[in-house]
C-alpha cells in the first residue's frame, strides 16, 4: 500500500486540506508547520519496498546555544507476526527474526543508534488466550534467550543500542514482562520490568507474570539516558514521572494495544508525558491480526493498530506510522531540546514534590 493512501488521521488531514490551511493545521495540531522529514537513501527505500514495511523519517532540532548539539538517531519498529500461531514456536520466532533483521539492517544503514521494538516482539501476544503451558516455550531468559542472542549480534555489528521487550522466564521459573537493554557492544546493560499489569477486558495479564519489582531504572547508554515504560504503564502518570526524575532523556513505550481499548488515548498519553516530564517519548504499538485456536474450541482474534510516533519535550510530534503495516520510523533528535524546554517552562523547578510526598505518606498511613 502506498504510504499516503491508507486511511489514517494524518493522511485524511493531509489529503483534504490545501497547502496553506495544512500548514496552519500542522502548527496547531502537531506543534509545527512542517514535519521536518529526513531524506533517506535510495537503498533504504528499496529495502522498505522489497520487504514490505513503511519507512518514515523525521527530525527535531534544538536552538543553537553554547553547548554543541547532542544529535541521536532513534528507530521505532512495529511489526506483525508472520506464521499462524499453530505452527511450532521455534518456527514462529525464527520467521519474526528474519523479518526484523532486514528492518534493523535498513535502520543501521541510515545511521540509527538506538532501536526499540514492540512489546513482546518475538512472539504473538498469546496472553489473551488464558492458556499458559501451551505457549511456555515463548518465555525466555533475559540474558541467554534466543531473542537476546539474536539481537546481541546485530547490536555489536552495527554499534546499536537495542531495547528488546520480551516475555522473560527467570532462573527460578518466574515470568516477567521485561524490556532488555542491549548496549552497542552487544552486552546486556540491564532490564526494566513492567510495573503495571492490566486486568481489564481481554487484557488480563496477571495470571501470566509478576508485576515489576525493579522500580524505574534509567540506562546510561553511549548515546543517551534511556528508560522504558511498558504498554499499560502509560496510563500511570507517576510511572512516567519517576523515569524523568531518575534522569531519562528518552522514554520508550513498547505496547500491544487494540482499537477497542482506548485508541483515543493513544495520541494523548505519551505526548502529555513528554511535555510534563521534559523528555522525548517514543510510542510503539504492535500491528496486524493474530488468531489463536482455543483448546476449548473456537478462535480468538486480536488486531493491533500500529500508529507508532515520537513526541519531543515541547509537545511537537511526528505523524504516526501505518495502522496496518509493518514500519520503521527513524527520528533524529537533539537532546539539548530537553533542557531548553525545561528552562523555558520550569515544570521541574516548580514541581513541589515535597507537598505530594507528604500527602502521599499521609494517605498511605490512613490505609
Ligand atoms: N499489553 C498491555 O498492557 N495492554 C493493555 C492495553 C492498553 O493499555 O492499551
UniProtKB/TrEMBL annotation:
| UniProt KW keywords | Hydrolase
- Plastid found in the keyword field: no
Checking InterPro entries in the record gives: Aliph_Amidase/BUP, C-N_Hydrolase, C-N_Hydrolase_sf
**Per the record's keyword annotation, is Lyase included, yes or no?**
no
Gene Ontology BP terms: beta-alanine biosynthetic process via 3-ureidopropionate
**GO MF annotations in UniProt:** beta-ureidopropionase activity
One Pfam family, short name: CN_hydrolase
Where would I find the CN hydrolase domain in this sequence?
72-335
> What PANTHER family would the database entry show?
BETA-UREIDOPROPIONASE (PTHR43674:SF2), NITRILASE C965.09-RELATED (PTHR43674)
Q: What is the name listed in the Swiss-Prot or TrEMBL entry for this protein?
A: CN hydrolase domain-containing protein
Say which species the protein is native to: Bombyx mori (Silk moth)
Write the lineage as a comma-separated list.
Eukaryota, Metazoa, Ecdysozoa, Arthropoda, Hexapoda
Amino acid at each position: 500500500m502506498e504510504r499516503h493512501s491508507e486511511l489514517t488521521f494524518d493522511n485524511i488531514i493531509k489529503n483534504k486540506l490545501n497547502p496553506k490551511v495544512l500548514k496552519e493545521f500542522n502548527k496547531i495540531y502537531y506543534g509545527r508547520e512542517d514535519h521536518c522529514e529526513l531524506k533517506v537513501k535510495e537503498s533504504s527505500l528499496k529495502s522498505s519496498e522489497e520487504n514490505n514495511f513503511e519507512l518514515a523519517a523525521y527530525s527535531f532540532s534544538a536552538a543553537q546555544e553554547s553547548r554543541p548539539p547532542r544529535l541521536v538517531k532513534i528507530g521505532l519498529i512495529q511489526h506483525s507476526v508472520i506464521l499462524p500461531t499453530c505452527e511450532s514456536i521455534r518456527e514462529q520466532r525464527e520467521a519474526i527474526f528474519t523479518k526484523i533483521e532486514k528492518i534493523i539492517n535498513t535502520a543501521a544503514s541510515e545511521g540509527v543508534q538506538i532501536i526499540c521494538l514492540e512489546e513482546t516482539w518475538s512472539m504473538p501476544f498469546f496472553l489473551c488466550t488464558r492458556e499458559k503451558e501451551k505457549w511456555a516455550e515463548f518465555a525466555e531468559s533475559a540474558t541467554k534467550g534466543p531473542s537476546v542472542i539474536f539481537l546481541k549480534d546485530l547490536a555489536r555489528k552495527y554499534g546499536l543500542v537495542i531495547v528488546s521487550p520480551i516475555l522473560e522466564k527467570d532462573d527460578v521459573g518466574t515470568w516477567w514482562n521485561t524490556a532488555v537493554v542491549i548496549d552497542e557492544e552487544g552486552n546486556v546493560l540491564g532490564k526494566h520490568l513492567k510495573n503495571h499489569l492490566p486486568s481489564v477486558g481481554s487484557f488480563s495479564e496477571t495470571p501470566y507474570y509478576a508485576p515489576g519489582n525493579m522500580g524505574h531504572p534509567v540506562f546510561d547508554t553511549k548515546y543517551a539516558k534511556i528508560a522504558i515504560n511498558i504498554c499499560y504503564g502509560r496510563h500511570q502518570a507517576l510511572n512516567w514521572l519517576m523515569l524523568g526524575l531518575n534522569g531519562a532523556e528518552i522514554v520508550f513505550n513498547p505496547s500491544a494495544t487494540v482499537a477497542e481499548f482506548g485508541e483515543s488515548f493513544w495520541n494523548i498519553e505519551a505526548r502529555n508525558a513528554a511535555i510534563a516530564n521534559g523528555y522525548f517519548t517514543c510510542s510503539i504499538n504492535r500491528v496486524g491480526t493474530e488468531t489463536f485456536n482455543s483448546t476449548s474450541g473456537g478462535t480468538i482474534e486480536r488486531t493491533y493498530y500500529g500508529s507508532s510516533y515520537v513526541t519531543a519535550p515541547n509537545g511537537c510530534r511526528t505523524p504516526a506510522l501505518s495502522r496496518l503495516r509493518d514500519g520503521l520510523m527513524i527520528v533524529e533528535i537533539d537532546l539539548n531540546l530537553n533542557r531548553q524546554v525545561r528552562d523555558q517552562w520550569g515544570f521541574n523547578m516548580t514541581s513541589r514534590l515535597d507537598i505530594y510526598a507528604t500527602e502521599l505518606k499521609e494517605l498511605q498511613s490512613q490505609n
